[in-house]
Specification:
Number of domains: 2
Bound molecules: adenosine-5'-triphosphate, magnesium ion
Structural class: alpha/beta
CATH class of the largest domain: Alpha Beta
Strand content: 15-25%
CATH topology of the largest domain: Rossmann fold
Distance between the termini: 29 Å
């Protein structure tokens, strides 16, 4: 049997040519999401609507499909529908009655309203007549139901288009814009709580995500790297495949440790992370960097520190969590499913060499002066780090 879902998306934001791009990208992302269910499927576009057909078997579960579609940005509502090819009115009434019976077994005292929409103006009944006649058929079958046109418990929708859709459940989608409609950004992805959330939030606005992780073996283990891959995989359920660049940062970190004041280590390290991320971004078509920073969270995220970090960046740095408290970030990470992985206790390359008292108000001129201590060897180390970039395609 085929189960059909009607996909609702926000149409207000769409004008002219953008609408086509938006729908095309949405269809691509929907296909990516339902392909994982390993079932026969079809995604159809018709008359400003997107329909998803899924073939079932004994193990079929609507919730699985709804979960998959719930990961697609751009979707505002997911509606399991009864889809009729035939527009014969008796058939519509019968299907509506069956739907109410099957979906609401405990219907004593419930109220409902029929909301017909006739997109095909040649249909022989107008929406008012359809509302009245289907309503009557339902009341005949289930006298225990009542009609309430103002605040019904159940809204039964009937759409008369090329095909007929009957449904009463609209499950909220994640909203946002389909990934691929807003260019590409480079996420600095660590194993922490914040950066996966930052990637999710920017992707939600339609941005395709690449990622870079700075790895410092043997100070950071293979398991710490695997944790980042796992986080990228969870985020990729929303964003589509992520090209994860793993950069070996050990020699750069050691060199900074050797040559620069230890209380400035973190800030100088972060400046090198930004420089390297930016080079990869420029080479791979990303238009901005994305980090999980939030003002004042740690010493390297004060306004002064962020100013020092920003100074090396020639492209915009997007920090979607900038005004969030930690508990608000944790809430989102729980919602999107990254939290449990983020809190696994593996080393983080930023914390290995961290000073006991890092500067909280670094002065840019001082930082730049101390960075000159690196002049002799740093370019070669950055070059090697870029040349040995390991790209993992995570999906
Ligand atoms: P997170 O939870 O994302 O690790 P954090 O609170 O630990 O954040 P920092 O360690 O100061 O914060 O890092 C700030 C941001 O810098 C991170 O959100 C991330 O975007 C980036 N970052 C930090 N370490 C790395 C790393 N090893 N590889 C890639 N990006 C990193
Ligand atoms: Mg971190």
């Amino acid at each position: 049997m085929t189960h059909t879902f009607l996909i609702k998306y926000a149409e207000i934001a769409l004008k002219g040519k953008n609408r086509h791009l938006f729908e095309e990208a949405l269809v691509q992302q929907i296909k990516y999401a339902v392909k994982k269910l390993d079932r026969e499927y079809a995604v159809r576009r018709a008359q400003g609507r997107i329909y998803v057909d899924i073939e079932d078997d004994a193990s079929y579960d609507d919730d699985e499909v709804i979960d998959a579609l719930g990961h697609v940005f751009g979707i505002v509502g997911i509606c399991p529908i009864i889809s009729l090819e035939d527009d014969d009115f008796e058939g519509i009434c019968r299907a509506a009655v069956e739907h109410m019976g099957a979906e609401y077994p405990d219907r004593e005292g419930l109220t409902f309203k029929v909301n017909a929409r006739r997109a095909r103006k040649d249909y022989f009944k107008d929406s008012m007549e359809i509302n009245a006649d289907v309503g009557e058929a339902i009341l005949n079958a289930y006298p225990e139901l009542r009609v309430d046109v103002h605040h019904p418990d159940i809204n039964l929708y009937i759409e008369i288009r090329e095909t007929i859709s009957i449904y009463s459940k609209v499950i909220p989608g994640p909203g946002g814009m389909p990934v691929g409609t807003s260019g590409k950004g480079m996420l600095l992805l660590s194993g922490g709580i914040d950066s996966p959330v930052a990637g999710y939030m920017v992707a939600k606005r339609g941005v395709k995500i690449d990622a870079v992780y700075f790895h410092a073996p043997p100070y950071t283990s293979e398991r710490a790297k695997q944790k980042v891959v796992d986080l990228a995989r969870i985020v990729s359920a929303y964003t589509g495949p992520i090209y994860l660049h793993v950069i070996n940062f050990t020699d750069i970190q050691m060199y900074i440790y050797e040559k620069c004041p230890h209380d400035e280590l973190t800030i100088i390290m972060r400046r090198y992370m930004m420089r390297i991320a930016q080079t990869i971004a420029q080479e791979t078509g990303s238009m901005g960097l994305i980090t999980g920073e939030s003002i004042g969270q740690v010493a390297s995220q004060t306004m002064q520190s962020l100013a020092c970090t920003d100074e090396v960046c020639e492209m915009p740095v997007y920090r979607p969590l900038i005004g969030f408290d930690k508990n608000e970030i944790v809430e989102i990470s729980q919602k999107i499913g990254t939290f449990e992985t983020s809190i696994l206790p593996f080393e983080d390359c930023c914390t290995i060499f961290v000073a006991k008292h890092p500067v909280t108000k670094p002065k840019l001129d001082v930082i730049i002066r101390h960075e000159h201590n690196l002049d002799e060897g740093i370019d070669a180390l950055v070059k090697t780090a870029l040349e040995t970039d390991e790209v993992i395609i995570v999906k």
